[in-house]
Design a protein that fits this description.
This protein has helices at 3-44, 51-76. It is mainly alpha-helical and 96 residues long. It has one domain (3-76). The chain starts with a helix and ends in a 20-residue tail after the last helix.
């Protein structure tokens, strides 16, 4: 497989991972809020539904986007050449 093809599939994997992480974080937040609402009602007779569900859903969405931006930033911080240092974006021709 050519290097260009490997780079293409590597980028596709990272984009898919970003999407999966965003959806997973959203559903985890939704489930946690739903579980807290359903736990508090019979135990303490607090009728909090749908407040914890909405709050934790919002936390999950925020966490998903934060993770997505972190993954995108990590991708742009990678060096262009295998021997380069992380964050080394100097133009090689400018030094001549």
């Amino acid at each position: 497989m050519e290097e260009r093809d490997k780079e293409f599939w590597r980028n596709m994997y990272q984009l898919a991972a970003m999407g999966i992480n965003l959806v997973a974080a959203t559903f985890i937040g939704l489930f946690m809020g739903w579980a807290i609402d359903n736990w508090l009602t019979p135990k303490l007779n607090w009728h909090t539904s749908p407040w914890f569900t909405m709050i934790f859903l919002l936390f999950g969405i925020i966490a998903g986007f934060k993770n997505m931006f972190h993954m995108a930033k990590t991708k742009t911080d990678m060096p262009d050449e295998p021997g380069g240092k992380k964050g080394d974006f100097r133009d090689k021709d400018k030094n001549k």
